[in-house]
């Protein structure tokens, strides 16, 4: 029974992890930018949801799409006016600039929101129900469902919509895409904006499930990075699956080895994946 | 790149030492490296704010008399960005290029553990109110003093109380973070549990700052323990309680946390879910704690709240006592020589807003922890060596609150 509960915990946690990785994988796959500010964007999305909830009294789950929209605008502007300047240059430059962005965003957040920790705490945040003796937290389940819905939305956008085709075309062959009238500056900004919007939703859910401080970003970036690599960059559903693999592995490690080994396991998995199938996992990049 | 960084550092150090060589007369400079940004900033600010408030108060009252001269205190605070390595470098910088006379401490045991080695190396006394771990004092250092009581005994009064409530818990789960403070707490607590005749059925360590407890909580649920003793830092305590609720994990009678519970921020972040949580504090703002500069602990708390807009907890009071330790010791030593002041600190014996300050042989103060509980959103002192107020015990299950 304990093992089943632990597995359920891991799978549900993995849904949120996958959602965190989704935006990172999208931006990485299309723009070839490893966005080291991704965790900082998740944090910002969390604070947006927090203030929509505590300031305006909007239910956090209603606030999520508003926060996503806000984050889309922020992401679009970041790419359009800053990242586009260096997006086709060496990868080191994009690493440097996104790292710089994460530092700037983190410290701006401390100035604006203070270092106090916050929680998004609606009355139902601790709600749960039991199925055959297994406790299912409602918000974790909702996060899990939202992760799959958004993965489906990203898949549909990339494969079925004109704009999605333009995004994929730009990633595959910039010159050919241009010849067909695609404006890469706009496409890049749109893609980054969508990545930021996904980060925003993940941040809101993260704030409901755990806590927010301006500093949560760094570890979330690392986690998203691992998940994006394990899930691969080509298929949104595989990213969610990558998140679930990490979630379950962490929970099992916590049960059998002790909670201090959680990070060893997730980064150990990363190393194993890179050794076993380096070409496959990075092909899309 | 390494060489150029080194050259830059040397150049900077030379420039800095040249610039500050002519420090004003009649000023005693106290230096500290504190967490003003980064993951510990939330607690680090208590130290900066308490140091400032106390130094200002002492200076406003005319400063301190050393020999026949009057001195003012001056503060030099650096931000260590919650990075231990940076904090060690900053303490070296404070002594070697900023020319501070004495050292105040950072927040948290793992910082104090490392930073105190700088004090020892340069033989300049450091009085710190942020680290409680016994490791800090177990190395025979002569220049480190501390105003937080030993981490080993944090749960002593709690376990003592558990022997006097009905029903007395028989089985206990201990959940501890893996940093220096919590390792010390866990070591001491295992002994206290054994001495009290309780059974430790689950003993789990987690990564400090990890914030993910669903596996531990599920194990607590399946082992059906009577009491949970939890030690770590605030955000982890917060996550533990939130996840306990969402996984519907109810220790049968009791849970208690070494940190968080006395802090206003913590109660605000958790709202109603904070109720019933037990915790501990070495300090409460009582009028019975008399102080030379502030009058009493309550006036200190009021002045602090007024100036900074948030209530002080034991971290702040402990920090204030550190500054006062220097004030008393400097007057008593009649000199600003580090060795003379060090010896005077060792002989400290004064009442303050924080506690009666008297350091043990190893440099650490010894104080009882007051058991506190959050009852209807309010912090209520419950037990020291006798009941102060009636505890809400046993803690009701989540569904019955």
UniProtKB/TrEMBL annotation, chain B:
Indicate the segments forming the Leucine-binding protein domain, all copies: 28-377
* GO BP: amino acid transport
Which CDD domains does this one have?
PBP1_ABC_ligand_binding-like
Q: Which InterPro entries match?
A: BCAA_transport, Leu-bd, Peripla_BP_I
Could you tell me the keywords of this UniProt record?
Amino-acid transport, Signal, Transport
Family, according to the entry, reads as follows:
Belongs to the leucine-binding protein family.
Its recorded name reads Amino acid ABC transporter substrate-binding protein
